[in-house]
């Protein structure tokens, strides 16, 4: 009961219209300039409830944009992204303050609106550069490709962020420490992430003049598409002006239907699995051989260098340089045309199992919300135990969706752990939840509603 009351109080208190403004950057310098970086609010936590409200509204407007397995996977990937953050915040927050003290070359006033505006523009340029690097550098693509793995495009897609993405942006974040104070940087780093949420939708059409200078849903649809003309285009976060300046802007074409996802879809809902499958592609590139069977990248260091070449690179591809890396001169080269109709990966899921997983998903989200609030006060043993449980919980859904035999075993082990934990702490809610869920799983197995789980994919 205490758990349910906590979730209810958390969600209702966060449904404050004032929190909704953060998702659209509707703020002023005066209200978002803080005395120090510790005072900067946890904007993601404040807006999370609104994100789910907008997802529900989008689903009601056009449910064709959603698939249950894909939506759960996207949100669960976002849960993993948040779980594995340093102190629940982005990675650069752990280093920015100390780096700023050592390398900043100009002491801009920390309480000035001019510094705030400069911080906004520099964050936009840094994100454009970092985002572009993650698309055009093989190693960076490993960090970022998770975000592009969904074959749907909706608000839940915004949550599908690989937990290594902050690694790809770290250097570009820290470069701002040369002039931007921490209290200004943290605000813009957070608000930029919030703004990008509402760009992931098909229900918002072209926005006319706004499309010329903002990264609107229309512009971002191009970025997420796998049509040849859309590859490596529209990297902006809030502003699209950097794409226009550096030649990576492409408008949405009304005469060509967009298909979403990776050029080669991975056909999986495994939230941990698709964090690392790109590693094999990086390794395989280093083993590339020519028509005579000779290695192209000979020696260890040449193989390492190959990992930094553009995704899809092969000998003979023309490249150009942007900042410190190479990119393909022709972004459409060797990109296959879209063959209609496009059929997304969507293994069948019977209604009883779907309802069971929906209930478990709501439990996972409630547990995540509580963990996000309590993590700072937890002891290390409790923190690591709770963290491991939530990762296993999120992973279980991927096994069910991919119809893997291991799903029943993993789920039952999780539920038994909940029961044992409940008995140890005499938490009757956990005990009844674990036992009840085990009974439901047994019934689903007996009635043949998880029979597809016997097929190993």
TrEMBL record:
Subcellular location: Endomembrane system
Keywords, sorted A to Z: Lipid metabolism, Membrane, Oxidoreductase, Transmembrane, Transmembrane helix
Membrane topology, from the record: Multi-pass membrane protein
UniProt GO molecular function: glyceryl-ether monooxygenase activity; iron ion binding
Fatty acid hydroxylase domain residues: 116-248
Cellular component terms (Gene Ontology): endoplasmic reticulum; membrane
InterPro entries: Fatty_acid_hydroxylase, Sterol_desaturase/TMEM195
GO biological process: lipid biosynthetic process; membrane lipid metabolic process
Transmembrane segments: 379-401, 408-425, 431-450
Signal peptide, first to last residue: none
Protein name: Fatty acid hydroxylase domain-containing protein
Organism: Cylicocyclus nassatus (Nematode worm)
